[in-house]
User: Which sequence fits this backbone?
């Protein structure tokens, strides 16, 4: 467990929790680490909404698949990031989304009930942990509001430009990389891939953007 300390200390869930408390805390929470191969399903839609995940290495995508098999990417999960916490905290009987590994990854799983309900040991870190979880949930609410703001735009062009401007602000630069390939970007924006490719080409011709694969420049 110690080999993950550097990653865990950068995780929002463990903010302001001293390193010396980390081992006893993880033991108290019953934290476990599982390995997943590329394209492996970490959480499947319909699974009990019980665990909070923390990405230690690798990455994953949170996706929603409708009745007809159409896929929409809700977000990308990178190392140190927490995922599925909103569903677990809400007490949903089952998950409404699927989490799929982009690459081989290691994930820490914690039963949400072990965080929300203090243990008999009265651990000093527990209040801070709950505060961190609430702050993380608020942050995710803002992130999903941005997703709604993007996908509610009328055209593919407007959706794409809304997404790219948000990414530029996040990078604090007009040059940035996005975490999606072309198909994944189409799934995230909830548009047709061919229409997205045509719009990117058009924006390049108009001198509004430049791009190579996942790298974009707003001109």
Assistant:
């Amino acid at each position: 467990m110690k080999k993950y300390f550097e990653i865990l200390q950068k995780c929002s869930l463990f903010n302001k929790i001293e390193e010396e408390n980390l081992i006893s805390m993880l033991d108290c929470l019953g934290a476990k680490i599982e390995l997943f191969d590329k394209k492996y399903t970490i959480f499947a839609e319909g699974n009990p909404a019980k665990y909070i995940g923390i990405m230690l290495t690798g990455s994953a995508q949170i996706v929603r698949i409708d009745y007809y098999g159409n896929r929409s990417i809700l977000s990308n999960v990178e190392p140190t990031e927490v995922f599925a916490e909103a569903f677990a905290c809400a007490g949903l009987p089952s998950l409404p989304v699927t989490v799929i590994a982009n690459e081989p990854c290691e994930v820490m799983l914690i039963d949400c009930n072990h965080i929300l309900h203090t243990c008999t040991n009265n651990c000093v870190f527990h209040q801070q942990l709950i505060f961190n979880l609430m702050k993380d949930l608020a942050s995710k609410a803002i992130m999903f509001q941005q997703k709604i703001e993007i996908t509610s735009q009328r055209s593919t062009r407007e959706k794409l430009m809304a997404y790219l401007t948000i990414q530029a602000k996040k990078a604090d630069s007009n040059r940035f990389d996005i975490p999606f390939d072309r198909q994944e970007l189409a799934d995230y924006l909830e548009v047709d891939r061919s229409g997205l490719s045509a719009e990117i080409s058009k924006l390049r011709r108009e001198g509004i953007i430049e791009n190579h694969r996942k790298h974009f420049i707003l001109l």
Summary: The first strand starts at residue 32 and ends at 36. The radius of gyration is 19 Å.
